[in-house]
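Hey, can you fold this one?
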Amino acid sequence: MSIYLPTLKQLQYLVALHEHGHFGNAAEACFVTQSTLSAGLRELESLLGLTLVERTRRVVRFTPVGERIALQARRVLAEAETLTDLARAAGKPLSGELRMGVIPTIAPFLLPQLLPRLRNEWPDLKLYLREEVTGQACDSLARGRLDCVLLALPYRCGDVETADLFEDRLHVALAEGEKAAAAPMIAPADIDEHRLLLLEDGHCLKDHALAACNRPELASEAAMLGTSLHTLVQMVDNGLGMTLLPEMAIRAGILNGTSVTTRPLAADHPSRRIALAWRKGSPRAKEFQLLAAALKSAATGAA
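Sure. Predicted structure:
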């Protein structure tokens, strides 16, 4: 076996550059300076005796062999991550570092209630959080940038295992003076598609809301304007339409200071499932099951 082997750090630099296509962004993702990343890649090329990246002022272009080596480097890093996970799983459960992704329609409403209880129950756990829309979070999970993801189902998140935590019911939010507000519940047929405000593409809550309503025309007629649920609430409060909110956001006080009222959505499937997901076959699966149980207990207790 050759003693001149690439280091994991060099492979991390290569994979980061392959993902970001920009030296500055890759260096930022690796928490190093651009000169450090560039030097590491030059050392890797010298070690292998190959040109992996063609450098110009405007474009970073991988050579054909550079493409193949970058893909293999990703596999090597994934195996190294598995080795670390095996060691963690053999030690004290829920201790040390854990990187969890959380989607934006969950993070601000659930985490303030959950995190203090997790810190109290698992004081040795260093939980690092990353807020991303569902597609990006699932991609980060698959690439090993995250260990698990707190998300809403149904959603195709790849080759993962999941543990359901609880059901999160959807409600119609509208101004108090609107005619529909007089009813105890609002059926999908009573929603004016021309006044329905939804989150922009990328947020799975939009898809869950449309699926719950089971009205195909809503996808094309609804105004998908909001970048966040708080923005949608402000638009409703200013008489611009109505929207759909998850119950956890209402419980967390998203309507405080507004004249917006809500009514439960009277549909066959008016809820989304909140769940924890992790890579299938992960050595830390038992640990994630333990985390899921802790999250479920904290969430239902807070409710």
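The mean pLDDT is 87. Let me know if you want another pass with a different chain boundary.
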